Amino acid sequence: SNGTNINWPPEFCPGVPWKGLQNIDP
Amino acid sequence: PEPLTASMLAAAPLMDQKQLLGERLYPMIHALHPNLAGKITGMLLEIDNSELLHMLESPESLHSKVDEAIAVLQAHQVKECS
What we know:
The complex is a heterodimer.
Chain A: no helix or strand
Chain B: H1 6-10, H2 14-32, H3 37-44, H4 49-57, H5 59-75
């Protein structure tokens, strides 16, 4: 990560397993 | 649903804890900001679980954090969820 991920923050969707920052910064 | 408690959370794996908190927080945030609820919930889930539990029980605390989150989102120019 370069610290400027435009996809931050990860979006929480009800009923979908939450992966936190792993969603956007593998 | 029954209230989420610290002991319920402690019995769940770490990511499941965030899931449980998110499922409770999302409807409350959605009532305030339908278009940004997913992003705001995602941001707030980075906060410590103990504080998130407190926010679930204290609407004033939740509203305060939601306001902070929106300010940060706007600073990052996050587009609204369609």
